[in-house]
Amino acid sequence: xxxxxxxxxxxxxxxxxxxxxxxxxxxxxxxxxxxxxxxxxxxxxxxxxxxxxxxxxxxxxxxxxxxxxxxxxxxxxxxxxxxxxxxxxxxxxxxxxxxxxxxxxxxxxxxxxxxxxxxxxxxxxxxxxxxxxxxxxxxxxxxxxxxxxxxxxxxxxxxxxxxxxxxxxxxxxxxxxxxxxxxxxxxxxxxxxxxxxxxxxxxxxxxxxxxxxxxxxxxxxxxxxxxxxxxxxxxxxxxxxxxxxxxxx
Length: 249
Ligand SMILES: Nc1ncnc2c1ncn2[C@@H]1O[C@H](COP(=O)(O)OP(=O)(O)OP(=O)(O)O)[C@@H](O)[C@H]1O
Ligand SMILES: [Mg+2]
Prior knowledge:
alpha/beta; Rossmann fold; binds adenosine-5'-triphosphate
């Protein structure tokens, strides 16, 4: 496992009587694409909110790039290079596609920002839609636009919350290409939450399986897909995992 970029240590989070995160610990290796999977309500999005400072853990620590960042505010985490998408797509529907990217605050001259925005749009395949109104895009292209926005920060760590949900396999392939490309060219680290097991198993070097706010298992996709505890707790039956370990590249 490479040097970790992110370490989550013994994190706890309650919402009133709901014990959403129950002593959760894991590491994300620098420059890896790591998957985070688990049943609905197991705490994946909450973990993103704890890493990015939307929520503060009740206890435990979040270490990023060797620094204790527990409870730092979201804009500080963004300045430190942590970017995320939201499970419900958030784009500014009345703005153009390009303007949507330029709303992301980053300390760069406007000329440099615009040039980077144009590069990012080209990378995700939205170059021709740059001047289109975001609200006129298809659902899939709006997902791509929100995905594109994370790169405006020149992030080191990108957290993706179900960006593959409800879009065509062709767009999923495009997103996977972009993730691999940003990792290879710029050394970006990705933590990817999704229920689309085919994508997770294809894309990730390492998969974390969460259940009831804890990490149940961690390993390479092929190991995870054979892990009986994972199959029982998460998938309920073996047929759900059929074929997934044949799709790795
Ligand atoms: N802001 C909140 N206030 C109260 N309870 C919350 C809040 N956010 C999450 N929870 C609860 O914490 C638990 C974990 O929810 P979370 O959204 O993290 O799950 P998830 O793994 O992302 O699920 P899904 O796969 O459906 O997106 C759930 O019981 C949820 O109801
Ligand atoms: Mg969620």
